[in-house]
Amino acid sequence: MNSHFPIYIIGAGGIVNDAHLPAYHLAGFNVQGIVDINPEKAKATADRFSIPNCYPSLEALLAAAPPNAIFDLAVPGSQIIPVLTLLPEKAAVLIQKPMGENFQQAGEILQLVKKKEQLAAVNFQLRYAPYILTAKDLLASGLLGEIYDIEINVNVYTPWQLWDFLFTSPRVEILYHSIHYIDLVRNLLGNPVSVYAKTTRHPSMPQLASVRSNIIMDYGEMVAANILANHCHNYGTPKQQSYIKIEGSKGAVKISFGALIDYPRGSADSFEYVLLEEGKEPEWREIKVEGSWFPHAFIGSMSQLMLAAEGSIAEPDNSAADCIHTMACVEAAYLSSEQGGVNIRNLGQISEK
Ligand SMILES: NC(=O)c1ccc[n+]([C@@H]2O[C@H](COP(=O)([O-])OP(=O)(O)OC[C@H]3O[C@@H](n4cnc5c(N)ncnc54)[C@H](O)[C@@H]3O)[C@@H](O)[C@H]2O)c1
Questions:
Q1: Residues 154, 150: Cα–Cα separation, whole Å
Q2: Is 88 left (phi over 0), alpha (psi -120 to 50) or beta?
Q3: 80 Cα to the center of ligand 1, angstroms
């Protein structure tokens, strides 16, 4: 892969400093410029990562960027359309998730990038976390058989106050967090038939929209996919946990991922798997996987765009056209939560006797 495409970053916030730039440094990518509506943040980030050009405005960055530039957008969801509108036709652009603030905006983003013939990918990078790539290798080799069950279980304390823009966002947990798990399930199983969900606020975070979610992605009679995310477990670290479990006809994988534990300190990941053998007790084994979600997975989402930009693949695996289906699942989850479950009072009188 030609990893020398010049990268121009728009937005110099937390995720760029904590993940994009550390990942690009590891991968040897060529970051050429950065801009932020807050020039001090752009300057501080440019200094920290030795980025040669720090621009006073998006217009100045666009004037300097060469035709083979890759634009790396890391702004809040509400800013994606205004920024994309200004980017040149046929540009290659990696859009930080979410793909807009709702499904309607995702549709507008897709139309916009099609109209401008931009090569657009969305930064749903959990798909490329090293432990997910390891699980995909086991799946591709057939060792796990057919997938029967995916469970993602997160029980952590997330300091949402770190992200100012969330306080005015009508949607928080699914749109900004469980979206990664929805995208991962889709990436492994394809699109679900439907989505059921209940997303709930928390009394200790009354300024925020819902911060806990239970999401069921419906794959029919025989395949289950469940996401359970509680970000309000403020009871110390001993019982904090976050794992992805994949069960197949011939084996299973359990990935405990540490990024969210004791946030932002994090803890170690682990990758365990078991292969069923006729007549033998199942025996779990561990694989030491190099790298983690943050920052290593960010190499994968950018690499997809570079591979498509150089023509090695027809389109990125994380193309806007693919990722809009993740946004559809997110929208369905919020709608399901609003609609509510089956009201037990509608089932008829329950006899007291
Ligand atoms: N795993 C992930 O993929 C992941 C993790 C965290 C955040 N994010 C996403 O990244 C985006 C940014 O999150 P963050 O944590 O860095 O937030 P942040 O608030 O730390 O940073 C956002 C930055 O964008 C700048 N900005 C806003 N509008 C702009 C514009 N029009 N032009 C240029 N700069 C602009 C702000 O000044 C700020 O510096 C969010 O959409 C969030 O969902 C993704």
A1: 13
A2: beta
A3: 10
Distance between Cα 13 and ligand 1 center (Å): 5
Atom of ligand 1 nearest to the CA of 18: 16
* Residues whose beta carbon lies within 6 Å of some atom of ligand 1: 10-16, 35-38, 41, 58, 74-77, 79, 83, 96-98, 123, 125, 163, 165, 176
**DSSP reduced 3-state for 322:** helix
3-state SS assignment for residue 255: strand
Report all structural domains of the chain as residue ranges with CATH numbers, in order of start: 6-126+297-317 (3.40.50.720), 127-287 (3.30.360.10)
Structure confidence at residue 1 (pLDDT)? 80
Closest atom, ligand 1, to C-alpha of 125? 3
Cα of 169 vs centre of ligand 1, distance in Å, is 13
- Percent of the chain predicted with pLDDT > 90: 93
- The residues pairing with 271 across neighbouring beta strands, listed in sequence order, are 255, 287
Q: Yes or no: say if 144 and 138 are a contact pair by the CB < 8 Å rule.
A: yes
Ligand 1 geometric centre to CA of 96 (Å): 8
Report d(CA 333, CA 350) in Å as an integer: 31
The CA distance from 74 to 20, in Å, is 9
**Which tens digit of pLDDT belongs to each residue from 183-222?**
999 999 999 999 999 999 999 999 999 999 999 999 999 9
Which ligand 1 atom sits nearest the alpha carbon of residue 15? Answer: 16
Q: Which tens digits make up the pLDDT trace of 7-30?
A: 999 999 999 999 999 999 999 999
* CA neighbor of 144 nearest in space, from 42, 336, 340, 282: 282
Instruction: Please state the atom number of ligand 1 nearest to the C-alpha of residue 35.
Output: 33
